[in-house]
UniProtKB/TrEMBL annotation, chains A, B:
Residues 247-275 are annotated as: Disordered. It comes from the Bacteria. Keywords: DNA-binding, Transcription, Transcription regulation. This is TetR/AcrR family transcriptional regulator. Transmembrane segments: none annotated. Residues 24-84 form the HTH tetR-type domain. Coiled coil: none annotated. InterPro entries: Homeodomain-like_sf, HTH-type_TetR-like_transc_reg, HTH_TetR, Repressor_TetR_C, Tet_transcr_reg_TetR-rel_C_sf. The lineage of its organism: Bacteria, Bacillati, Actinomycetota, Actinomycetes, Pseudonocardiales. Residues 266-275 have a biased composition (Pro residues). It comes from Actinomycetospora chibensis.
Length: 275, 275
DNA sequence: GCCACTTTCCAGACGTTGTACCGAAAGGAT
DNA sequence: ATCCTTTCGGTACAACGTCTGGAAAGTGGC
């Protein structure tokens, strides 16, 4: 297999020559097994030995399809994003706010299905479907009268808002799963022990006051989606204000780069690119 | 030391009795050594052996101060947040938007100093300074005419927005540090290899168009702070709209909970609390 | 001064992890 | 049938977190 670049695997380049001993498993099977295990038990239970055992295969057999554990996780992440990239671009005639909100929801639900993506340390891999997701997030803000840089920032910030909220929301479930203790006992132990033993109401006046005013009453899981909806709506409101009033960037930056680009290559996939 | 609860360590409860062999290091020293190492080399280089070697101490000596590696990281995170909790609450007379923006900046800069906090998998530990930060973030939104639940959501979403943006921005520097390759070569290799070998302009039309329009031109590091400023401003604009027009929640939920609370204890420190 | 008692320190060991090495196995091409 | 290419899997190794047991180093009581 050509070790030209580790990105080859993400972009499906390593074409089999047909010669040599045939592999007992496909790369798709390996990635699927990893996905299943991560969905069920989290990233910290994704050991190469465990994945190999799930497939009934020796450990080192995995390394014919992935170049490392981290490479496997990269493939898994890109495969996960393939779930939503099919219907992410704005539909014809769909208002930009509806499209952006729909994208935010899709990303949110993807993170709910695969929370390990959020607890994965490094950046998203530059795979085709991750890039597809990022590209789609730019689309709703393209022709609404924002300057190009504002357009880019608006989309990146929306993505980050969803990611941050999802991370906050899923991390506690993740912790519950990791420690093995059930959700009920976890919270009951927190409630029983933490508040009376450590929390000092006068030290944290804002939370205390909000508590007594009922600000933390939402107990159902769906209310957690409410916070996404509200935050996205508020943020898009802010973008809308920017469009109608101080926008003035409709044609300021259009076709500015028809000459010689200051950097060779193409667009960066993520916040800012080279800095 | 009483192993009543792992939270005792975070809240500084384990008081030394004065008897027995005195410890050669203090818990503060251990946490500081861990902080220094994580700041310099990231969380994945924070091994117990390395921290012990930095202190000139045997490995197991650390376990008299921390109960595990994860407990050490929790202490480190709480210690890091202590850097900003001193001046986080709104100043007297400070407009709520200024206070919220200032908090967002402070959190952003904290993450820039300690990016490993963002790449840490599980949720923030329930330490006194983490709680202090969370409490302060609620304060600006308290008396601006939002319903209690909206107040809580607004603060949580602002925190998540900053965290998400910071995570996106710092993860690539983190990746550079982890792989050992310098920033310049990293990006030059990305630029030289990626765009011409993998990227297909017709497959990612939004990014391609934004690129040609100059949407990704910000090359300086400070521009990265611009994205935070812009996103926070947009979000706070959305909150402001909510306050002045459709708010109507000024007194809807005040003092609703003076009777018997539906849950025993006190306010939850984080999004939603028990669900 | 001496002795119990308590706490900390450290060397070694154990189990688990990712993965390098290498000979054996298995199929296509000649 | 023989080569050639690729995959397979047992073994090995270094690094990791942390348990264990005994030695070390103090304090309090006599």
């Amino acid at each position: 297999m050509g070790d030209e670049h580790h990105l080859d695997l993400l972009w499906g380049r390593g074409a089999a020559t047909g010669r040599g001993r045939p592999a007992r498993t496909t790369r798709e099977q390996v990635v699927a097994a990893g996905l299943a295990r991560a969905d069920a038990a989290g990233l910290e239970d994704l050991s190469m030995r465990a994945v190999a055992a799930d497939l009934g295969v020796g450990v080192m057999a995995l390394y014919t399809h992935v170049e490392s554990r981290e490479g496997l996780v990269a493939l898994m992440i890109d495969a996960a994003f393939a779930e939503i990239t099919g219907d992410l671009y704005p539909h014809p005639g769909e208002p930009w706010r509806d499209a952006a909100a729909r994208q935010a929801r899709a990303l949110w639900e993807l993170y709910a299905r695969h929370p390990w993506i959020l607890h994965h340390g490094s950046r998203l891999p530059m795979g085709p479907h991750v890039l597809g997701m990022e590209d789609a997030f730019f689309a709703p803000f393209l022709d609404i009268g924002l300057a190009p840089a504002e357009t880019a920032n608006a989309a990146i910030a929306l993505r980050s808002l969803v990611t941050g909220l999802a991370r906050d929301s899923t991390s506690e479930q993740d912790q519950v799963r990791r420690t093995g203790v059930g959700l009920a006992e976890y919270w009951s132990s927190i409630n029983a022990v933490f508040w009376e033993r450590y929390f000092e109401e006068e030290r944290y006046p804002s939370m205390t006051r909000l508590w007594y005013e009922g600000g933390f009453e939402s107990e159902d899981v769906l209310a957690e989606e409410g916070i996404l909806e509200r935050a996205v709506e508020a943020y898009l409101d802010g973008i809308a204000v920017r469009v109608h009033s101080g926008g003035s960037g409709q044609d300021a930056g259009v076709a500015r780069r028809q000459g010689a680009p200051s950097r060779a290559g193409g667009p960066p996939p993520s916040p800012g690119g080279p800095r």
